Amino acid sequence: MRGLPSKVSKSITIGTQIVCADNTGAKELEVINVPKRASKLRTRPSAGIGDLVIVSVKKGKPDVRKKVMKAVIVRQKKEFRRLTGIRMKFEDNAAIIVDDAGLPKGTEVKGAIAREVVMRFPKIAGVTSIIV
User: Fold this and answer.
1) Which residue of 10, 61, 115, 124 could cross-link 48, Cys pair, CB 3.0 to 4.6 Å?
2) Cβ atoms of 43 and 109 closer than 8 Å
3) Which residues of 26-62 are buried (b: 16+ CB within 10 A; e: fewer)?
């Protein structure tokens, strides 16, 4: 996985409810694990923009509900800093469901996504319309 040219604050922890920003049929996701993220004793592992997380679908179509899937965080409320000095933040926490190879399962993305996501997962750029 490629490193990011920005200082992303990790604000999404285990148990966070996030919005699904693609058209796979899922509406609301809950983060249940952050793979490859070691944490200290009694602290929850956390994720930020461009990180891969394991999620459970809480609301959505019946065929995708109660399924465990992988997702990539594309928006977060907590601001993060880019190397140019600009601080970015979005109005919600959102993720896109991906498969094991990192390819998006949906065919379109609702809303804007961060440029840092496209650097790590270039195939996501093909299904999105707005990159900030």
Assistant:
1) 10
2) no
3) beebebeebeeeeeeeeeebbbbbbbbbebbbeebee
28 pLDDT exceeds 70?
yes
Q: What residue ranges define each of the domains in the chain, with the CATH number in brackets?
A: 6-131 (2.40.150.20)
Q: CA 63, CA 25: separation in Å to the nearest integer?
A: 8
* Spatial CA neighbour of 21 closest among 96, 90, 76, 75: 96
- pLDDT for residue 51 is more than 80: yes
CA–CA gap between residue 72 and residue 44 (Å, rounded): 18
* CA separation for the pair 59, 20 (Å, rounded): 10
